[in-house]
Amino acid sequence: MNPLNHVAIIMDGNGRWGIKHHNSRNKGHKAGLKTVETVIKISIEKKIPFLTLFAFSTENWKRPKTEVNALFNLLENFLKKKIEVFKKNKIKLIIIGEKKFPKKLNKLLKDSEKKTKNNSKLQINLALNYGSKKEIVNAIKLLNKKKLNINEKNISNNLYTKNIPDPDLLIRTGDTNRLSNFLLWQISYSEIFFSKKLWPDFKAEDFIKILNKYKFIKRNFGKIL
Ligand code: IPE
Ligand code: IPE
Ligand code: MG
């Protein structure tokens, strides 16, 4: 059975769900938060040490300002509400991506990281203003600055995800089969599952089904097994 240390998820399909059910993309984003709670709960139950959630990409700034603001408001309320739950459940939260948001949100993100930094049951890496290409360029700039050799280990150690094992499993919901600039370096050997379900429709049993399938995949890593 394959060990499972890290699950990464591209939570896609909120907008379409919102339009379909309430004629409002933002209502879809709100509904998606329920699924976030579900996958966190199951990750704890299944003793998965790392969960990475893609919440806002560097490209998502191209959306209308009203939607971007609505997303930030939702995130702010979610974090304010959940931080005590995170503390109680020994969840550590870190942000991967560039913390370049309105001042109030930046502060809340930093505070949330600080308040949970000693927790160790589940680490949630929230990908916010995250772009994989930017992350790689940034890592190479850091190597230059630190006068370090350019090699795989040094690049890995200078990504936002330093100290986090590469994802074993990548899931994208929303019936879209692409990576959208997410963890391009880190997923070189991840098992990838695309779900047709929109994120708010993705339920505990959908997640568990994928986890169970993953367990029995023959992972070759280039060898003949
Ligand atoms: C994913 O859902 C959440 C974010 C990108 C913030 P979308 O908003 O992309 O939903 P669809 O793909 O338009 O349905
Ligand atoms: C990817 O979804 C980003 C997040 C889930 C946060 P998008 O909906 O932004 O991806 P594209 O634009 O369809 O590739
Ligand atoms: Mg989308």
Write the layout of secondary structure elements.
Blueprint: E1 6-10, H1 14-22, H2 25-45, E2 50-57, H3 65-88, E3 91-96, H4 103-116, E4 122-130, H5 132-145, H6 152-156, E5 169-172, E6 191-194, H7 204-215
Parallel strand pairs: 1-2, 1-5, 2-4, 3-4, 5-6
Helix pairs in contact: 1-2, 2-3, 3-4
This protein binds 3-methylbut-3-enyl trihydrogen diphosphate (2 copies) and magnesium ion (MG).
Keyphrases for this structure?
six-stranded parallel beta sheet, 225 residues, binds 3-methylbut-3-enyl trihydrogen diphosphate, Undecaprenyl pyrophosphate synthetase, binds magnesium ion, alpha/beta
What would your notes on this structure say?
With 225 residues, the protein is of the alpha/beta class. It has one domain (6-130, 167-215): Undecaprenyl pyrophosphate synthetase (3-Layer(aba) Sandwich). The protein has helices at 14-22, 25-45, 65-88, 103-116, 132-145, 152-156, 204-215, and strands at residues 6-10, 50-57, 91-96, 122-130, 169-172, 191-194. 32% of the residues are buried. The protein binds 3-methylbut-3-enyl trihydrogen diphosphate (2 copies) and magnesium ion.
